[in-house]
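REVIEWER CHECKLIST
Item 1: Sequence provided? yes
Item 2: Single chain? yes
Item 3: Sequence as submitted:
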Amino acid sequence: MHNCNTLPPLALSLDHWKLEKVTLLQRLCAGIVVLLVSGCASYGVIENKPMQVPADDRGYSVETFMEEWRTDENALMLAFSGGGTRAAALSYGVLKELRDTPVVSGQDTIRLLDEIHTISSVSGGSFTSAYYGLHGDGIFDDYEEVFLRKNVEGALFRRVLNPFRWFGSTSRTEMAVGYYDKNIFNGATYADMHKQDGPLILINATDLANGVRFSFVQEYFNLLCSDLSSFPVSRAVTASSAVPVLFPPVVVENYPECGEEDPDWLKVAQTRAASDEQIDILVDGVEKYLDRDKHRYAHFVDGGITDNLGLRAIYEITEVSGGGSTFIEKHQRQPPRRIVMIAVDASTEGDTDMYRSDKIPSIGETVGAMTNVQLHRYNAATIELMRNYINSWAQAMSTPETPVTPYFILLNFEDIQDSERLEYFNQIPTSFHLEDEQVDRLIEVGGELLRNNPEFRRLLSDLDANQ
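Item 4: Structure as written out by the authors:
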């Protein structure tokens, strides 16, 4: 329900006036909308349903995917960062390259794409991960047309300026959910995602009140006494990409007690929190969901605020189970021969005119700068954390007879050697409308960065040598 107090719709896009070539009449209409909505308050639409039976971590859960792990050869994990369509196109290019990379696994020659076990994503990267989770190889048939080459910003902006919506109760976030649901995800829910024989997709958002990451898997929904299977994928992706202030949060309800004890993973995490500051922060946040009288609702916004690269979800999920080796033993799996983490970082180092002028930045410039700060702020610490963690995880699972080899593969624009090309990619904006040439070049460079990465080449060489 929309009731007034939100930022004017003029701020919906980073640069709508330029991209949409808005006429004077449209500007006047927008001004009228600003006046009409000025001073309103928004109330979230609740679409998560209560749990009907005690939770058993079934459905779309980490537990289920560990039971169905398809190979003991390689544990291949991907992390997709935020960055609007720029991030979506770059990560899509990486998927295409993995599709086109044949490897030998056991007695069979397969695509490296088929070895993916988990994809963790935030913000713009969540569009690609969710679409792949729903469609598998179908992503290579129509994703470019359905999303990457669509002017999504323009479509949402036109909805805001539609005079028939001026007196309605639909917030900008609900407009986005509706558009994504109809035009990208076709009404799909997590039950549809669960039907696919693909990797675990961890779509991550940020709990605005708790300041902790929240993953859309059943283990987290158990904390809310809620059933994830009927939850729309479009709503999860909207939450993961909802830039605060520009978009109101996606709201879910924390339902009354559903009869189960604290989950085992939370009990383990509570024990480990005493010696691990990262886990302590997580535990402090998720424990609040259990105080249901005081925390009736959760408000989810851009996952990039707490996990810019999409990497911390994988770290936390394994650590709260007692660490990598304990995680494997708990699920009665043999350690993989290789642990591979591919982090796709779409952040940029674009130039800005703010340095050259005392002119007050526009809303678009301000939002762009805020987004870049989010994408850069914790990247270095997160990368160091995960690089060390993958190494220690492999070491803990290794035995003299069966060593486990770690590979941490970081892909970002900084690896582009040509300065003119680097400048080109750094100037691509964080938005949901790119030119076709920009999309083409992002897809191309995603594959190129992976092919040329020394750690990736080491992986391919080791795969060949061990057959």
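Item 5: Key structural point noted by reviewer: The chain has 20 helices and twelve strands.
Item 6: Recommendation: ____
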